[in-house]
Amino acid sequence: MEQDIEDGVDVKSVSLSFALEPYDDPIAKPSFSTMEQGIVITTSSCNEGPQVGILRNGIPWVLTVVADTIDRWFVGIMTLGNGMTIIGWSIFWGNLLLQKLSLVYDKNLETCNSFASLLKAQYGIIICHVGNIDNQIKSLVAM
Questions:
Q1: Angle CA(84)–CA(69)–CA(105) in degrees, nearest 5?
Q2: What count of other Cβ atoms lies within 10 Å of the Cβ of residue 69?
Q3: How are beta strands 85-90 and 125-126 bridged, if at all?
Q4: Do 38 and 61 touch, CB atoms closer than 8 A?
Q5: Mind telling me which residue stretches traverse the membrane in this protein (predicted)?
Q6: Which fold has domain 74-142?
Q7: What is the pairing mode between strands 74-79 and 85-90?
Q8: The whole model's pTM is what?
Q9: Residues 6+ apart with CB under 8 A from 4
Q10: Which of 42, 62, 90, 116 is in Cβ range 3.0-4.6 Å of 76 for a Cys bridge?
Protein backbone atom coordinates (compact mmCIF):
# COMPACT_ATOMS: atom_id res chain seq x y z
CA MET A 1 0.00 0.00 0.00
CA GLU A 2 3.01 2.28 0.35
CA GLN A 3 3.34 2.16 -3.44
CA ASP A 4 -0.25 3.37 -3.73
CA ILE A 5 0.67 6.51 -1.80
CA GLU A 6 3.64 7.15 -4.09
CA ASP A 7 1.49 6.53 -7.19
CA GLY A 8 -1.19 9.01 -6.09
CA VAL A 9 -4.00 6.46 -5.93
CA ASP A 10 -7.41 7.81 -4.77
CA VAL A 11 -9.22 4.53 -4.05
CA LYS A 12 -7.77 1.10 -3.25
CA SER A 13 -9.96 -2.01 -3.48
CA VAL A 14 -8.72 -4.97 -1.45
CA SER A 15 -10.91 -8.03 -2.06
CA LEU A 16 -9.72 -9.74 1.09
CA SER A 17 -10.85 -9.83 4.67
CA PHE A 18 -9.80 -11.77 7.70
CA ALA A 19 -11.71 -12.83 10.80
CA LEU A 20 -9.08 -11.24 13.02
CA GLU A 21 -8.88 -8.38 15.47
CA PRO A 22 -7.58 -5.20 13.79
CA TYR A 23 -4.21 -5.42 15.57
CA ASP A 24 -3.64 -8.90 14.03
CA ASP A 25 -5.14 -8.14 10.61
CA PRO A 26 -2.47 -7.87 7.86
CA ILE A 27 -4.58 -5.25 6.05
CA ALA A 28 -5.39 -3.06 9.07
CA LYS A 29 -2.00 -1.43 9.73
CA PRO A 30 -0.99 -0.59 6.14
CA SER A 31 -4.52 0.58 5.32
CA PHE A 32 -4.42 3.01 8.27
CA SER A 33 -1.38 4.86 6.97
CA THR A 34 -2.88 4.82 3.49
CA MET A 35 -6.15 6.27 4.85
CA GLU A 36 -4.16 9.01 6.62
CA GLN A 37 -2.88 10.06 3.19
CA GLY A 38 -6.46 10.51 1.94
CA ILE A 39 -6.80 7.22 0.06
CA VAL A 40 -10.15 5.42 0.48
CA ILE A 41 -9.68 1.70 1.15
CA THR A 42 -12.50 -0.76 0.38
CA THR A 43 -12.52 -4.37 1.53
CA SER A 44 -14.90 -7.29 1.36
CA SER A 45 -16.48 -8.83 4.42
CA CYS A 46 -15.93 -12.49 5.14
CA ASN A 47 -18.75 -14.77 6.19
CA GLU A 48 -18.10 -16.55 9.46
CA GLY A 49 -21.14 -18.85 8.93
CA PRO A 50 -22.86 -21.15 9.12
CA GLN A 51 -25.35 -18.87 10.88
CA VAL A 52 -27.19 -16.23 8.91
CA GLY A 53 -25.83 -12.73 9.33
CA ILE A 54 -22.42 -13.43 10.87
CA LEU A 55 -20.04 -11.27 8.86
CA ARG A 56 -16.68 -9.98 9.89
CA ASN A 57 -14.32 -7.18 9.02
CA GLY A 58 -13.49 -5.08 12.03
CA ILE A 59 -11.31 -2.36 10.49
CA PRO A 60 -13.14 0.90 11.30
CA TRP A 61 -11.22 3.12 8.83
CA VAL A 62 -12.05 1.14 5.68
CA LEU A 63 -15.26 0.91 3.66
CA THR A 64 -16.48 -2.69 3.95
CA VAL A 65 -18.59 -4.08 1.10
CA VAL A 66 -20.90 -7.08 1.46
CA ALA A 67 -23.18 -8.87 -0.98
CA ASP A 68 -26.60 -10.10 0.00
CA THR A 69 -27.65 -11.72 -3.25
CA ILE A 70 -26.06 -13.50 -6.15
CA ASP A 71 -27.18 -13.48 -9.75
CA ARG A 72 -27.25 -17.24 -10.30
CA TRP A 73 -28.69 -20.47 -8.99
CA PHE A 74 -27.13 -23.92 -9.01
CA VAL A 75 -28.69 -27.34 -9.23
CA GLY A 76 -29.02 -28.84 -5.77
CA ILE A 77 -29.36 -32.59 -5.31
CA MET A 78 -30.50 -33.92 -1.96
CA THR A 79 -30.76 -37.61 -1.09
CA LEU A 80 -33.02 -38.42 1.83
CA GLY A 81 -32.44 -41.16 4.36
CA ASN A 82 -34.97 -43.39 2.60
CA GLY A 83 -32.99 -43.13 -0.66
CA MET A 84 -35.36 -40.68 -2.36
CA THR A 85 -33.52 -38.01 -4.38
CA ILE A 86 -34.84 -34.45 -4.68
CA ILE A 87 -33.46 -32.11 -7.33
CA GLY A 88 -33.96 -28.38 -6.87
CA TRP A 89 -32.21 -25.03 -6.86
CA SER A 90 -29.54 -23.82 -4.47
CA ILE A 91 -27.26 -20.83 -4.10
CA PHE A 92 -24.56 -23.18 -2.80
CA TRP A 93 -22.25 -24.37 -5.59
CA GLY A 94 -20.11 -26.93 -3.79
CA ASN A 95 -20.51 -30.52 -2.68
CA LEU A 96 -21.39 -31.00 0.95
CA LEU A 97 -22.30 -34.09 2.93
CA LEU A 98 -24.77 -33.31 5.70
CA GLN A 99 -26.25 -36.14 7.69
CA LYS A 100 -29.29 -36.38 9.92
CA LEU A 101 -30.69 -32.91 9.28
CA SER A 102 -34.42 -32.32 9.45
CA LEU A 103 -36.33 -30.91 6.50
CA VAL A 104 -38.08 -27.74 7.65
CA TYR A 105 -41.13 -26.39 5.85
CA ASP A 106 -42.96 -23.59 7.55
CA LYS A 107 -45.74 -21.71 5.75
CA ASN A 108 -44.53 -18.48 7.41
CA LEU A 109 -41.02 -19.01 5.99
CA GLU A 110 -41.92 -20.37 2.57
CA THR A 111 -40.52 -17.43 0.59
CA CYS A 112 -37.36 -17.31 2.76
CA ASN A 113 -37.29 -13.52 2.48
CA SER A 114 -37.47 -12.55 6.15
CA PHE A 115 -34.15 -12.40 7.96
CA ALA A 116 -35.87 -12.20 11.36
CA SER A 117 -38.04 -15.25 10.62
CA LEU A 118 -35.10 -17.29 9.34
CA LEU A 119 -33.20 -16.61 12.57
CA LYS A 120 -36.10 -18.12 14.54
CA ALA A 121 -36.47 -21.15 12.25
CA GLN A 122 -35.83 -24.68 13.39
CA TYR A 123 -32.29 -25.85 12.56
CA GLY A 124 -32.21 -27.99 9.43
CA ILE A 125 -32.65 -27.76 5.69
CA ILE A 126 -35.24 -25.04 5.11
CA ILE A 127 -37.56 -25.63 2.17
CA CYS A 128 -38.32 -22.37 0.32
CA HIS A 129 -41.06 -21.73 -2.21
CA VAL A 130 -39.75 -19.47 -4.98
CA GLY A 131 -42.84 -19.35 -7.17
CA ASN A 132 -44.51 -21.64 -9.65
CA ILE A 133 -42.52 -23.70 -12.14
CA ASP A 134 -43.47 -21.46 -15.11
CA ASN A 135 -41.96 -18.40 -13.42
CA GLN A 136 -38.84 -20.37 -12.47
CA ILE A 137 -38.35 -21.49 -16.09
CA LYS A 138 -38.92 -17.93 -17.37
CA SER A 139 -36.28 -16.61 -14.97
CA LEU A 140 -33.80 -19.25 -16.14
CA VAL A 141 -34.44 -18.48 -19.81
CA ALA A 142 -33.95 -14.76 -19.10
CA MET A 143 -30.49 -15.37 -17.59
A1: 35
A2: 5
A3: unpaired
A4: no
A5: 73-98
A6: Glucose Oxidase; domain 1 (3.50.30)
A7: antiparallel
A8: 0.43
A9: 12, 34, 39
A10: 90
